[in-house]
Each structure stands twice: as C-alpha cells, then as structure tokens.
Amino acid sequence: MRFLLLLLCSSAFATTIYHYENWLEGKKSPLTWEVDETKDGILLKAYENIGQTTLECTPAFAQINNYVFSSKDKKSSYSIQRQDNKLVLEVQTKNRNRTTTRKTVFKMTNPWVQQFGFGLKPFIISKNKKLEFCVINTTKPDLIEMIARKKEKIPLKIKDKTYQAQKVEVTLTGLKKLFWKAALWFDLESFDMLKYEADSGPATPTTTILFIGKEKASFMDVFKKK
What we know:
About 10% of the residues lie in helices and about 60% in strands. It is mainly beta.
C-alpha cells in the first residue's frame, strides 16, 4: 500500500496541466492540455469543446510518433502515425450505422510538427533561426510544407502578467505564403507557448489562443484517473 501511494504521488509530479483560452469571433472556449512525462517519452492529451486530441512524443518533444483526434459527438476521428520516414493518415467517419475509413500514406522530407505549441519547443530552445517542417491536412488529405522563423523578442502582457517572449512566424512555402501565416509567442523562461494567432485561410475569422497558467496535477487528480 505504501509503495502504491508513493507511485501515485510520483506520477502526479510527472503530470502538468496547461490552461488556455480559445477565442473565435468574440466567443471564448476552454482548452486544456495534460502532459505526462516519463523517461520513455511524453503523452499529451488536449480537451476542448470539439473533442479530444492525444499525442505520443519522444522525450523533450523531439519527435511525434502518433497523433489521434476524436470528435465529441463520436461521428469522426483520425489518426496520424509515423512509420520510419512515412506518415500514415487514417480518417474515420460515421453516418448512422455505417463507418467509412480512408487511409493515405505520405513520405516525409522534413520533420513532422502537427501541433505547434509543444512541437515547436525544441526549435525555440535551439539557436536556430529557421525551421522547415511539415503538417498533415486531415480534411483534404495532403502533406503541407511550412517554415517557422524566429522574429523579435518582446514583452507580452496576458491578463495581469507580463512575459519576455520570443515571437515566431509560421508560413507556407513558395507563393502559398502569401495566403496564410500564423504568429506565436513563447515564454523565454519556460519555453511554453503563450499566444497563438491565425486564421484558417483567406476570408476566415482569426483564432487566438491565450495561455492562462499551468499546474502540477494533484494526488487526487491522478487517483481519480486510476
């Protein structure tokens, strides 16, 4: 019993909960990331109004191995799995009693960063000024090449707190960069993402994600999950 108690407590200290606000067209919705770190890797879970996302990463967010999303209404889901230098996308949609599955395989030439907030951390920590990477468009199956560039370091105020932040601009490649870009700000102390701002394409509203805070999971949080 004592061993089990110590095990649960140690698990609690390995879990960090990140709280964000997701703003779209003046409406706010919560976004929570739960990050479990072990010596073997990192498991991330995101909880938001539209559904749940799960990522499996190697230590220090160096590489994503698996990415899964399930909609809240259980009508759609998709997974992206790394297999050597390939990414395998599997999309499932449910219509009444029928389930349709679509599978697509992509060959990678650059690192895969499907989730910017945690996936770009190694780049922010590094001395590199530019990172070429790819993401998967799951709606219209496609591998999209992107470039992240470090911009200026500025004070960034969120709520009542001011952070020293590194701004990063993410764009598409070639002429496509004229049609979409995203701006992100990362804390220069913790390297946590503080703010994200982008639209989904021309003539679409801007989504803004703001960092509210983070905390270590309590003993009771872990106990409830057990």
